[in-house]
Protein backbone atom coordinates (compact mmCIF):
# COMPACT_ATOMS: atom_id res chain seq x y z
CA UNK A 1 0.00 0.00 0.00
CA UNK A 2 1.69 3.20 -1.19
CA UNK A 3 1.66 6.36 0.83
CA UNK A 4 -0.29 8.97 -1.21
CA UNK A 5 1.47 11.89 -2.86
CA UNK A 6 0.36 15.37 -1.89
CA UNK A 7 0.48 18.19 -4.47
CA UNK A 8 3.07 16.25 -6.45
CA UNK A 9 5.51 16.02 -3.54
CA UNK A 10 7.75 12.94 -3.56
CA UNK A 11 6.79 11.64 -0.14
CA UNK A 12 6.59 7.94 -0.95
CA UNK A 13 9.12 5.28 -1.75
CA UNK A 14 8.03 1.64 -1.90
CA UNK A 15 5.03 2.51 0.26
CA UNK A 16 7.11 4.39 2.85
CA UNK A 17 8.18 8.02 3.14
CA UNK A 18 11.50 9.21 1.78
CA UNK A 19 13.63 11.19 4.28
CA UNK A 20 12.04 14.61 4.80
CA UNK A 21 14.21 17.61 3.98
CA UNK A 22 13.11 21.23 4.30
CA UNK A 23 10.04 22.97 5.70
CA UNK A 24 7.89 22.39 2.63
CA UNK A 25 8.26 18.60 2.72
CA UNK A 26 7.87 18.62 6.50
CA UNK A 27 4.61 20.51 6.18
CA UNK A 28 3.23 18.04 3.66
CA UNK A 29 4.14 15.04 5.83
CA UNK A 30 2.60 16.76 8.87
CA UNK A 31 -0.64 17.28 6.92
CA UNK A 32 -0.80 13.67 5.68
CA UNK A 33 -0.14 12.25 9.15
CA UNK A 34 -2.57 14.69 10.77
CA UNK A 35 -5.37 13.51 8.49
CA UNK A 36 -4.50 9.85 9.06
CA UNK A 37 -4.24 10.10 12.85
CA UNK A 38 -7.36 12.17 13.46
CA UNK A 39 -9.46 10.15 11.05
CA UNK A 40 -8.89 7.24 13.43
CA UNK A 41 -8.69 9.22 16.66
CA UNK A 42 -11.82 11.39 16.47
CA UNK A 43 -14.39 8.54 16.45
CA UNK A 44 -12.43 6.78 19.22
CA UNK A 45 -12.29 9.98 21.28
CA UNK A 46 -16.01 10.51 20.79
CA UNK A 47 -16.71 6.95 21.94
CA UNK A 48 -14.42 7.28 24.96
CA UNK A 49 -16.05 10.58 25.87
CA UNK A 50 -19.40 8.84 25.74
CA UNK A 51 -18.18 5.98 27.91
CA UNK A 52 -16.44 8.35 30.33
CA UNK A 53 -19.58 10.44 30.26
CA UNK A 54 -21.40 7.44 31.70
CA UNK A 55 -19.16 7.70 34.80
CA UNK A 56 -19.28 11.49 34.99
CA UNK A 57 -23.04 11.76 34.56
CA UNK A 58 -23.48 9.11 37.23
CA UNK A 59 -21.26 11.14 39.59
CA UNK A 60 -23.32 14.26 38.85
CA UNK A 61 -26.60 12.49 39.63
CA UNK A 62 -25.18 10.82 42.75
CA UNK A 63 -23.43 14.01 43.90
CA UNK A 64 -26.81 15.67 44.37
CA UNK A 65 -27.89 12.83 46.65
CA UNK A 66 -25.21 13.82 49.19
CA UNK A 67 -21.46 14.20 49.83
CA UNK A 68 -21.14 10.73 51.40
CA UNK A 69 -22.83 9.10 48.40
CA UNK A 70 -20.50 10.97 46.04
CA UNK A 71 -17.46 9.86 48.05
CA UNK A 72 -18.67 6.23 48.01
CA UNK A 73 -19.15 6.13 44.24
CA UNK A 74 -15.90 8.04 43.71
CA UNK A 75 -13.99 5.47 45.75
CA UNK A 76 -15.44 2.58 43.76
CA UNK A 77 -14.76 4.27 40.43
CA UNK A 78 -11.35 5.66 41.40
CA UNK A 79 -9.99 2.84 43.55
CA UNK A 80 -11.73 -0.53 43.15
CA UNK A 81 -13.02 0.05 39.64
CA UNK A 82 -9.81 1.67 38.42
CA UNK A 83 -7.70 -1.14 39.88
CA UNK A 84 -9.72 -3.83 38.11
CA UNK A 85 -10.50 -1.78 35.00
CA UNK A 86 -6.84 -0.88 34.53
CA UNK A 87 -5.67 -4.46 34.83
CA UNK A 88 -8.31 -5.72 32.41
CA UNK A 89 -7.63 -2.95 29.90
CA UNK A 90 -3.92 -3.67 30.13
CA UNK A 91 -4.46 -7.37 29.52
CA UNK A 92 -6.52 -6.44 26.47
CA UNK A 93 -3.72 -4.27 25.07
CA UNK A 94 -1.91 -7.38 23.87
CA UNK A 95 -4.77 -7.79 21.40
CA UNK A 96 -4.18 -4.21 20.26
CA UNK A 97 -0.51 -4.91 19.50
CA UNK A 98 -1.03 -8.20 17.69
CA UNK A 99 -4.21 -7.27 15.79
CA UNK A 100 -2.68 -4.00 14.58
CA UNK A 101 0.53 -5.62 13.39
CA UNK A 102 -1.30 -8.60 11.85
CA UNK A 103 -3.63 -6.26 9.95
CA UNK A 104 -0.68 -4.28 8.63
CA UNK A 105 1.05 -7.51 7.59
CA UNK A 106 -2.06 -8.68 5.71
CA UNK A 107 -2.88 -11.52 8.13
CA UNK A 108 -6.48 -10.33 8.61
CA UNK A 109 -7.72 -13.88 9.24
CA UNK A 110 -5.75 -13.97 12.50
CA UNK A 111 -7.58 -11.00 14.05
CA UNK A 112 -10.60 -13.05 15.11
CA UNK A 113 -8.34 -15.71 16.63
CA UNK A 114 -6.43 -13.11 18.66
CA UNK A 115 -9.71 -11.58 19.86
CA UNK A 116 -11.07 -14.94 21.00
CA UNK A 117 -7.80 -15.77 22.72
CA UNK A 118 -8.08 -12.50 24.61
CA UNK A 119 -11.70 -13.27 25.56
CA UNK A 120 -10.56 -16.46 27.27
CA UNK A 121 -7.66 -14.84 29.09
CA UNK A 122 -9.64 -11.79 30.24
CA UNK A 123 -12.62 -13.83 31.41
CA UNK A 124 -10.39 -15.98 33.62
CA UNK A 125 -8.72 -12.79 34.86
CA UNK A 126 -12.08 -11.23 35.72
CA UNK A 127 -13.03 -14.24 37.86
CA UNK A 128 -9.72 -13.96 39.72
CA UNK A 129 -10.37 -10.26 40.36
CA UNK A 130 -13.96 -10.66 41.61
CA UNK A 131 -12.94 -10.79 45.32
CA UNK A 132 -11.85 -7.16 45.01
CA UNK A 133 -15.46 -6.22 44.31
CA UNK A 134 -16.96 -8.65 46.81
CA UNK A 135 -14.74 -7.47 49.67
CA UNK A 136 -14.51 -3.80 48.65
CA UNK A 137 -15.73 -2.49 52.03
CA UNK A 138 -13.07 -4.20 54.19
CA UNK A 139 -10.39 -3.43 51.61
CA UNK A 140 -11.26 0.28 51.72
CA UNK A 141 -11.24 0.22 55.54
CA UNK A 142 -7.80 -1.39 55.53
CA UNK A 143 -6.68 1.40 53.22
CA UNK A 144 -7.86 3.84 55.89
CA UNK A 145 -11.14 5.10 54.46
CA UNK A 146 -13.94 6.26 56.78
CA UNK A 147 -16.29 3.46 57.89
CA UNK A 148 -19.54 5.01 56.66
CA UNK A 149 -18.06 5.80 53.22
CA UNK A 150 -16.41 2.36 52.92
CA UNK A 151 -19.60 0.49 53.86
CA UNK A 152 -21.70 2.39 51.33
CA UNK A 153 -19.01 1.93 48.69
CA UNK A 154 -18.92 -1.81 49.43
CA UNK A 155 -22.66 -2.12 48.85
CA UNK A 156 -22.37 -0.26 45.55
CA UNK A 157 -19.42 -2.45 44.52
CA UNK A 158 -21.45 -5.67 44.82
CA UNK A 159 -24.17 -4.20 42.62
CA UNK A 160 -21.80 -3.28 39.76
CA UNK A 161 -20.21 -6.75 39.43
CA UNK A 162 -22.27 -7.44 36.24
CA UNK A 163 -20.76 -4.31 34.69
CA UNK A 164 -17.26 -5.58 35.48
CA UNK A 165 -18.00 -8.98 33.91
CA UNK A 166 -18.77 -7.32 30.58
CA UNK A 167 -15.19 -6.06 30.24
CA UNK A 168 -13.57 -9.40 29.18
CA UNK A 169 -15.65 -9.25 25.99
CA UNK A 170 -15.78 -5.48 25.57
CA UNK A 171 -12.05 -4.69 25.46
CA UNK A 172 -10.81 -7.33 22.97
CA UNK A 173 -13.75 -6.67 20.64
CA UNK A 174 -13.00 -2.95 20.67
CA UNK A 175 -9.29 -3.59 19.92
CA UNK A 176 -10.31 -5.92 17.07
CA UNK A 177 -12.31 -3.11 15.46
CA UNK A 178 -9.72 -0.40 16.13
CA UNK A 179 -6.92 -2.41 14.48
CA UNK A 180 -8.90 -2.28 11.23
CA UNK A 181 -9.79 1.42 11.69
CA UNK A 182 -13.47 0.43 11.98
CA UNK A 183 -14.01 3.10 14.57
CA UNK A 184 -17.18 4.89 13.45
CA UNK A 185 -19.40 2.06 14.64
CA UNK A 186 -17.73 2.20 18.05
CA UNK A 187 -18.58 5.90 18.27
CA UNK A 188 -22.26 5.37 17.37
CA UNK A 189 -22.62 2.57 19.92
CA UNK A 190 -21.05 4.80 22.59
CA UNK A 191 -23.41 7.68 21.83
CA UNK A 192 -26.47 5.45 22.01
CA UNK A 193 -25.29 3.98 25.30
CA UNK A 194 -24.75 7.42 26.88
CA UNK A 195 -28.21 8.65 25.89
CA UNK A 196 -29.86 5.51 27.27
CA UNK A 197 -27.75 5.72 30.44
CA UNK A 198 -28.85 9.29 31.21
CA UNK A 199 -32.48 8.27 30.78
CA UNK A 200 -32.04 5.26 33.06
CA UNK A 201 -30.34 7.37 35.77
CA UNK A 202 -33.21 9.87 35.78
CA UNK A 203 -35.81 7.09 35.86
CA UNK A 204 -34.13 4.87 38.47
CA UNK A 205 -32.78 7.55 40.83
CA UNK A 206 -35.41 10.29 40.72
CA UNK A 207 -38.62 8.67 39.48
CA UNK A 208 -38.31 5.25 41.16
CA UNK A 209 -36.22 6.66 44.06
CA UNK A 210 -33.72 3.76 44.01
CA UNK A 211 -30.70 5.91 44.92
CA UNK A 212 -27.32 4.18 44.53
CA UNK A 213 -29.03 0.93 43.58
CA UNK A 214 -30.55 2.67 40.57
CA UNK A 215 -27.15 4.07 39.58
CA UNK A 216 -25.64 0.56 39.75
CA UNK A 217 -28.41 -0.96 37.61
CA UNK A 218 -27.88 1.76 35.00
CA UNK A 219 -24.13 1.00 34.98
CA UNK A 220 -24.74 -2.73 34.44
CA UNK A 221 -27.27 -2.36 31.63
CA UNK A 222 -25.25 0.29 29.79
CA UNK A 223 -21.98 -1.66 29.89
CA UNK A 224 -23.54 -4.88 28.60
CA UNK A 225 -25.42 -2.92 25.94
CA UNK A 226 -22.12 -1.55 24.58
CA UNK A 227 -20.54 -5.01 24.62
CA UNK A 228 -23.42 -6.75 22.87
CA UNK A 229 -23.63 -3.99 20.26
CA UNK A 230 -19.96 -4.41 19.36
CA UNK A 231 -20.25 -8.21 19.19
CA UNK A 232 -23.25 -8.02 16.88
CA UNK A 233 -21.32 -5.77 14.50
CA UNK A 234 -18.27 -8.07 14.52
CA UNK A 235 -20.29 -11.21 13.75
CA UNK A 236 -22.53 -9.54 11.19
CA UNK A 237 -20.21 -7.14 9.33
CA UNK A 238 -16.57 -8.20 9.84
CA UNK A 239 -16.38 -11.28 7.63
CA UNK A 240 -12.67 -10.88 6.80
CA UNK A 241 -11.45 -10.83 10.39
CA UNK A 242 -14.19 -12.97 11.93
CA UNK A 243 -14.47 -16.57 10.71
CA UNK A 244 -16.41 -17.96 13.67
CA UNK A 245 -15.27 -19.58 16.90
CA UNK A 246 -11.99 -21.44 16.54
CA UNK A 247 -9.92 -23.85 18.61
CA UNK A 248 -6.86 -21.90 17.41
CA UNK A 249 -7.77 -19.41 20.14
CA UNK A 250 -6.34 -21.89 22.67
CA UNK A 251 -3.09 -22.43 20.74
CA UNK A 252 0.05 -20.71 22.14
CA UNK A 253 -2.16 -19.21 24.82
CA UNK A 254 0.63 -19.01 27.42
CA UNK A 255 2.78 -16.87 25.15
CA UNK A 256 -0.25 -14.61 24.68
CA UNK A 257 -0.71 -14.52 28.45
CA UNK A 258 2.87 -13.31 28.91
CA UNK A 259 2.38 -10.43 26.47
CA UNK A 260 -0.98 -9.64 28.09
CA UNK A 261 0.61 -9.51 31.54
CA UNK A 262 3.37 -7.19 30.32
CA UNK A 263 0.68 -4.94 28.85
CA UNK A 264 -1.37 -5.06 32.05
CA UNK A 265 1.58 -4.24 34.27
CA UNK A 266 2.59 -1.30 32.07
CA UNK A 267 -0.88 0.23 32.11
CA UNK A 268 -1.74 -0.62 35.70
CA UNK A 269 1.39 1.04 37.06
CA UNK A 270 0.09 4.21 35.40
CA UNK A 271 -3.57 3.86 36.36
CA UNK A 272 -2.93 2.75 39.95
CA UNK A 273 -0.49 5.60 40.44
CA UNK A 274 -3.22 8.22 40.11
CA UNK A 275 -5.62 5.98 42.03
CA UNK A 276 -3.23 6.07 44.99
CA UNK A 277 -3.70 9.85 45.27
CA UNK A 278 -7.37 9.27 46.15
CA UNK A 279 -6.40 6.60 48.71
CA UNK A 280 -3.78 8.79 50.37
CA UNK A 281 -6.17 11.75 50.42
CA UNK A 282 -8.59 9.62 52.45
CA UNK A 283 -6.09 9.69 55.33
CA UNK A 284 -5.93 13.48 55.52
CA UNK A 285 -7.94 15.64 57.93
CA UNK A 286 -11.48 16.29 56.67
CA UNK A 287 -11.27 13.28 54.36
CA UNK A 288 -14.64 13.91 52.67
CA UNK A 289 -13.57 17.34 51.40
CA UNK A 290 -10.11 16.04 50.44
CA UNK A 291 -11.46 13.05 48.48
CA UNK A 292 -14.31 14.98 46.88
CA UNK A 293 -12.15 17.94 45.76
CA UNK A 294 -9.54 15.62 44.29
CA UNK A 295 -12.21 13.48 42.64
CA UNK A 296 -13.76 16.53 40.96
CA UNK A 297 -10.36 17.61 39.63
CA UNK A 298 -9.62 14.08 38.43
CA UNK A 299 -12.98 14.05 36.72
CA UNK A 300 -12.06 17.10 34.63
CA UNK A 301 -8.58 15.70 34.07
CA UNK A 302 -10.27 12.52 32.91
CA UNK A 303 -12.34 14.38 30.30
CA UNK A 304 -9.15 15.76 28.79
CA UNK A 305 -7.45 12.41 29.27
CA UNK A 306 -10.13 10.76 27.17
CA UNK A 307 -8.94 12.78 24.18
CA UNK A 308 -5.44 11.45 24.56
CA UNK A 309 -6.55 7.92 25.27
CA UNK A 310 -8.25 8.17 21.89
CA UNK A 311 -5.04 9.51 20.37
CA UNK A 312 -3.23 6.72 22.23
CA UNK A 313 -5.38 4.15 20.43
CA UNK A 314 -4.97 5.92 17.08
CA UNK A 315 -1.17 6.13 17.26
CA UNK A 316 -1.07 2.51 18.39
CA UNK A 317 -3.04 1.55 15.27
CA UNK A 318 -0.83 3.70 13.02
CA UNK A 319 2.45 2.40 14.47
CA UNK A 320 1.40 -1.26 14.54
CA UNK A 321 -0.05 -1.11 11.02
CA UNK A 322 3.02 0.63 9.56
CA UNK A 323 5.44 -1.73 11.30
CA UNK A 324 3.41 -4.66 9.99
CA UNK A 325 3.65 -3.17 6.49
CA UNK A 326 7.41 -2.70 6.85
CA UNK A 327 7.32 1.15 6.83
CA UNK A 328 9.73 2.44 9.50
CA UNK A 329 9.70 6.13 8.45
CA UNK A 330 5.90 6.26 8.33
CA UNK A 331 5.80 4.93 11.90
CA UNK A 332 8.44 7.42 13.06
CA UNK A 333 6.92 10.48 11.38
CA UNK A 334 3.46 9.58 12.64
CA UNK A 335 4.80 9.48 16.21
CA UNK A 336 6.58 12.84 15.93
CA UNK A 337 3.54 14.63 14.47
CA UNK A 338 1.16 13.18 17.06
CA UNK A 339 3.34 14.02 20.07
CA UNK A 340 3.76 17.64 18.90
CA UNK A 341 0.05 18.18 18.28
CA UNK A 342 -0.92 16.55 21.59
CA UNK A 343 1.38 18.93 23.47
CA UNK A 344 -0.30 21.94 21.85
CA UNK A 345 -3.75 20.63 22.81
CA UNK A 346 -2.58 20.09 26.39
CA UNK A 347 -1.42 23.71 26.63
CA UNK A 348 -4.85 24.93 25.48
CA UNK A 349 -6.55 22.89 28.22
CA UNK A 350 -4.11 24.25 30.80
CA UNK A 351 -5.13 27.82 29.95
CA UNK A 352 -8.85 26.95 30.16
CA UNK A 353 -8.45 25.44 33.64
CA UNK A 354 -6.47 28.40 34.94
CA UNK A 355 -9.17 30.81 33.73
CA UNK A 356 -12.10 28.81 35.20
CA UNK A 357 -10.50 27.39 38.36
CA UNK A 358 -12.89 29.25 40.70
CA UNK A 359 -16.07 28.13 38.94
CA UNK A 360 -15.99 24.63 37.44
CA UNK A 361 -16.73 22.74 40.69
CA UNK A 362 -20.32 24.06 40.67
CA UNK A 363 -21.22 21.37 38.14
CA UNK A 364 -20.73 18.70 40.81
CA UNK A 365 -21.65 20.33 44.09
CA UNK A 366 -23.22 23.34 45.80
CA UNK A 367 -20.85 23.08 48.78
CA UNK A 368 -18.84 26.31 49.22
CA UNK A 369 -15.98 24.65 51.16
CA UNK A 370 -15.67 22.12 48.34
CA UNK A 371 -15.59 24.93 45.74
CA UNK A 372 -12.71 26.57 47.64
CA UNK A 373 -10.82 23.28 47.94
CA UNK A 374 -11.14 22.59 44.22
CA UNK A 375 -9.98 26.13 43.37
CA UNK A 376 -6.77 25.59 45.37
CA UNK A 377 -6.01 22.52 43.26
CA UNK A 378 -6.61 24.36 39.97
CA UNK A 379 -2.93 25.13 39.33
CA UNK A 380 -1.88 21.51 39.78
CA UNK A 381 -4.74 20.36 37.58
CA UNK A 382 -3.61 22.75 34.84
CA UNK A 383 -0.03 21.43 34.85
CA UNK A 384 -1.30 17.85 34.93
CA UNK A 385 -3.34 18.60 31.81
CA UNK A 386 -0.12 19.36 29.90
CA UNK A 387 1.75 16.31 31.18
CA UNK A 388 -1.14 13.99 30.44
CA UNK A 389 -1.36 15.23 26.87
CA UNK A 390 1.98 13.67 25.92
CA UNK A 391 2.33 10.63 28.18
CA UNK A 392 -0.66 8.60 26.85
CA UNK A 393 0.52 9.14 23.26
CA UNK A 394 3.91 7.63 24.06
CA UNK A 395 2.19 4.72 25.80
CA UNK A 396 0.21 4.17 22.60
CA UNK A 397 3.46 3.98 20.66
CA UNK A 398 4.71 1.40 23.16
CA UNK A 399 1.60 -0.74 22.64
CA UNK A 400 1.84 -0.41 18.86
CA UNK A 401 5.49 -1.45 18.91
CA UNK A 402 5.22 -4.12 21.60
CA UNK A 403 7.46 -2.33 24.12
CA UNK A 404 5.19 -2.95 27.10
CA UNK A 405 7.81 -4.64 29.33
CA UNK A 406 10.32 -1.77 28.93
CA UNK A 407 7.72 0.88 29.75
CA UNK A 408 6.60 -1.16 32.78
CA UNK A 409 10.11 -0.92 34.28
CA UNK A 410 10.23 2.83 33.63
CA UNK A 411 6.81 3.32 35.23
CA UNK A 412 7.84 1.33 38.28
CA UNK A 413 10.93 3.45 38.88
CA UNK A 414 9.46 6.88 38.11
CA UNK A 415 6.12 6.42 39.81
CA UNK A 416 6.74 4.17 42.78
CA UNK A 417 10.40 4.81 43.65
CA UNK A 418 10.24 8.59 43.12
CA UNK A 419 6.76 10.08 42.70
CA UNK A 420 4.78 8.22 45.36
CA UNK A 421 7.35 8.57 48.20
CA UNK A 422 7.87 12.24 47.32
CA UNK A 423 4.12 12.86 47.34
CA UNK A 424 3.82 11.16 50.72
CA UNK A 425 6.61 13.31 52.18
CA UNK A 426 5.16 16.56 50.85
CA UNK A 427 1.58 15.69 51.73
CA UNK A 428 2.10 14.35 55.25
CA UNK A 429 5.56 15.28 56.54
CA UNK A 430 5.60 18.77 55.03
CA UNK A 431 1.87 19.22 55.87
CA UNK A 432 0.99 20.37 52.35
CA UNK A 433 -2.09 18.14 52.20
CA UNK A 434 -3.65 17.27 48.86
CA UNK A 435 -1.44 19.81 47.06
CA UNK A 436 1.67 18.09 48.40
CA UNK A 437 0.44 14.61 47.48
CA UNK A 438 -0.45 15.61 43.95
CA UNK A 439 2.60 17.84 43.39
CA UNK A 440 5.07 15.19 44.49
CA UNK A 441 3.49 12.55 42.33
CA UNK A 442 3.57 14.88 39.32
CA UNK A 443 7.37 14.82 39.58
CA UNK A 444 7.24 11.11 38.79
CA UNK A 445 5.13 11.80 35.69
CA UNK A 446 7.62 14.46 34.52
CA UNK A 447 10.56 12.06 34.79
CA UNK A 448 8.67 9.23 33.09
CA UNK A 449 7.63 11.46 30.20
CA UNK A 450 11.18 12.73 29.65
CA UNK A 451 12.59 9.20 29.65
CA UNK A 452 10.01 7.96 27.16
CA UNK A 453 10.66 10.94 24.88
CA UNK A 454 14.36 10.10 24.94
CA UNK A 455 13.62 6.47 24.06
CA UNK A 456 11.47 7.60 21.13
CA UNK A 457 14.29 9.84 19.91
CA UNK A 458 16.79 6.94 20.02
CA UNK A 459 14.49 4.28 18.52
CA UNK A 460 15.78 2.38 15.49
CA UNK A 461 12.57 2.00 13.50
CA UNK A 462 14.08 -0.39 10.94
CA UNK A 463 14.92 -2.75 13.79
CA UNK A 464 11.34 -2.43 15.02
CA UNK A 465 10.15 -3.59 11.57
CA UNK A 466 12.40 -6.66 11.84
CA UNK A 467 11.02 -7.54 15.26
CA UNK A 468 7.43 -7.04 14.11
CA UNK A 469 7.96 -9.26 11.06
CA UNK A 470 9.44 -12.01 13.21
CA UNK A 471 6.55 -11.71 15.68
CA UNK A 472 4.03 -12.08 12.87
CA UNK A 473 5.92 -15.08 11.47
CA UNK A 474 5.71 -16.85 14.83
CA UNK A 475 2.16 -15.82 15.83
CA UNK A 476 0.69 -16.04 12.36
CA UNK A 477 2.36 -19.34 11.56
CA UNK A 478 3.68 -18.04 8.27
CA UNK A 479 7.23 -18.12 6.95
CA UNK A 480 7.86 -14.48 6.12
CA UNK A 481 11.28 -13.54 4.83
CA UNK A 482 12.43 -10.80 7.14
CA UNK A 483 15.37 -9.76 4.97
CA UNK A 484 13.17 -9.04 1.97
CA UNK A 485 10.86 -6.75 3.92
CA UNK A 486 13.68 -4.92 5.69
CA UNK A 487 15.54 -4.49 2.38
CA UNK A 488 12.53 -2.75 0.89
CA UNK A 489 12.76 -0.08 3.62
Task: Provide a quick synopsis of the model.
With 489 residues, this protein is an all-alpha fold. 81% of the residues lie in helices and 0% in strands. The radius of gyration is 23 Å and the shape is globular.
Task: List the topology elements.
Layout (H helix, E strand, L loop, with lengths): L22 H41 L3 H38 L5 H25 L1 H7 L4 H13 L1 H4 L2 H13 L4 H24 L3 H27 L15 H29 L5 H39 L2 H29 L11 H9 L1 H24 L2 H26 L3 H26 L2 H16 L5 H6 L2
Helix pairs in contact: 1-2, 1-8, 1-9, 1-11, 1-12, 2-3, 2-5, 2-7, 2-10, 2-11, 3-7, 4-5, 7-9, 8-9, 10-11, 10-15, 10-16, 11-12, 11-13, 11-14, 11-17, 12-14, 12-17, 14-16, 15-16
Explained architecture:
This protein is mostly helical and 489 residues long. The protein is built from 18 helices and no strands. Helix 15 packs antiparallel against helix 16. The protein is globular, with a radius of gyration of 23 Å. One of its GO terms (molecular function) is antiporter activity. This is Protein DETOXIFICATION. Belongs to the multi antimicrobial extrusion (MATE) (TC 2.A.66.1) family.
Features:
489 residues, 18 helices, 81% helix, globular
Average pLDDT taken over every residue: 84
Indicate the low-confidence ranges by residue numbers.
1-11, 477-489
Number of strands: 0
The H/E string reads HHHHHHHHHHHHHHHHHH
Number of helices: 18
| Terminal Cα span | 13 Å
Largest β sheet strand count, sense and barrel closure: none
Determine Rg (CA atoms, Å): 23 Å
Give me the secondary-structure category. Answer: mainly alpha
Helix content: over 70%
Q: What characteristic shape results from the CA principal axes? A: globular
Strand content: under 5%
